[in-house]
Amino acid sequence: MASGRAGERMGKNSRERHKVKRKAAAASQRRRAAGTHSPEDPLGLFEAPNIPSQRQLAEQIIDQAVRAQHRADLAELDQCCALLAAGPGGATGIQVVNRTLLTRLLREVEHAWRDGWQPAELVRVARREYATRHGRLLVDAIAAQMRSYSSATVDQRWQSQLAALDAQVWWEHDDHYVSVWGDRQGLDRAGAIATVIEVLHRLATLPPIEKVGPMPGAAVPAGATPPADLDQRMLHRVRALLAKAESTEFPEEADAFTAKAQELMARHRIDHALLAATTGERDQPRTRRVGVDNPYEAPKSLLLQVVAEANSCRAVWTKRFGFTTIVGFPADLDSTELLFTSLLVQATRAMTQAKPSADRYGRNTTRSFRQSFLTAYASRIGERLDTATEEVDREMTASVGAAQLLPVLAARDDAVRDAFEKQFPELTHQAAAINNREGWASGRAAADRASLHGRQAVAQE
Predict the structure, then answer these.
(1) Spans of biased composition, class Basic and acidic residues (predicted)?
(2) Are residues 68 and 141 in the same domain?
């Protein structure tokens, strides 16, 4: 009897549940037809006849939030963030939302990598367009995504970026990540989720760019040795010499250290170019991107451009994302980065030591002075490098022989030009702004004092 009554109650309860579902579905259909939703579910995500899982609900709300972010619909965005903060289904729903948000971040990070973006570039974009905390969020997402790859299958330049970012998984469980990250940043749950949505939107709207190296997971042949143009011992010696040139207060010492560094780079580059031509090695131009950050990013990018051109490379600045893309042969790219870094250190030191005067109205002119200073510095460095390059052409042609050297250099220049034009078929040129004569004159004078003795060696192929 007891079991029979229990069966009757279960059957009755089942009939009641079906009745409630039919009423709810009918009410949902009427609301959808009228274009309205219940106050408890303003987005209408819980009204579907086939009730989705917590994860599916979270994914739907995240999609809705990213679209609202794209449309700048703040009211809908706030509603979505509130639903995600509460979590569908209470406490367990909060953990589901946390994991779904992190999973979505990892998916977008990997998609950006496949579109050519590297770790440091993603973090730079997040910091430039939002705030420091957005960059920290991306560092964590990158660290989490890297768990899928063996370090043996990760390119050395990627590993260097990851080390510089200090990308580490510091949280204990992915289900708690969004919550503990928000606590670290001093944000409430809705604020933490809003930050994640902003980063997801940014990642989803990044354009594809040129790939500059293998993605994580690309197999590195066992026992592979780096090519001659990436001789780490030589680069270590060059860096040490340039560090001494940057730190000394005596111009003569700086000149000597810089000249020796340039001599090493030049010998390495010339030997490699001639060897490649002799052996028929298929040495091809490559692409590298160098971050150029504010303040005064325009004249800094100009300095990088003139150094790149002196090293038979081509460069273009992408202002929106804060990097300069350089196309050239590997040894020339190394020389460009090293020399640019050293000259930028010297320029910054000279710029900060120079004291601008106030204008005739007593206004502070520091910003315009420094902008003009660095622009003039880059312009004058370019002139000096051009002169040095012409001298080198004459010296090396006489030493090696025009018939042997000039065709090699011309072929490499053509290869760089073709690779660059393929990547950037349409370019917009922008003239540098000069609005402080004192800064311009001071910058040119500083460029004349910059350590370039021996520069002619670096300009050679």
Answers:
(1) 1-14
(2) yes
42 and 171 housed in the same domain:
yes
Cross-strand bridge partners of residue 289: 325
* Number of compact structural domains in the chain: 2
Domain-embedded: residue 346: yes
Question: Contact 60/45 with Cβ under 8 angstroms?
Answer: yes
pLDDT tens readout for residues 250-307: 656 765 676 566 566 666 666 667 777 777 777 789 999 999 988 888 889 999 999 8
Q: Binning pLDDT at 50, 70 and 90, where does residue 238 land? A: confident
pLDDT score of 456:
35
333 and 273 in one domain? Answer: yes
Report the candidate in 85, 335, 86 with the shortest Cα–Cα distance to residue 197: 85
For residue range 154-201, list pLDDT tens digits in order.
Answer: 998 899 999 999 999 999 999 999 999 999 999 999 999 999 999 999
111 and 56 belong to one structural domain: yes
CB count within 10 Å of CB 216 equals 20
Asked if 427 and 372 sit in the same domain, the reply is yes
- Give the domain range for residue 122: 33-204
Q: Would you state the pLDDT for residue 81? A: 95
Query: Which among 204, 239, 271 is the end of a domain?
Result: 204
Amino acid at 280: G
**Where a domain ends, among 172, 204, 236?**
204
pLDDT band per the 50, 70, 90 thresholds, residue 359: low
Tokens for 396, please give them. 């090396």
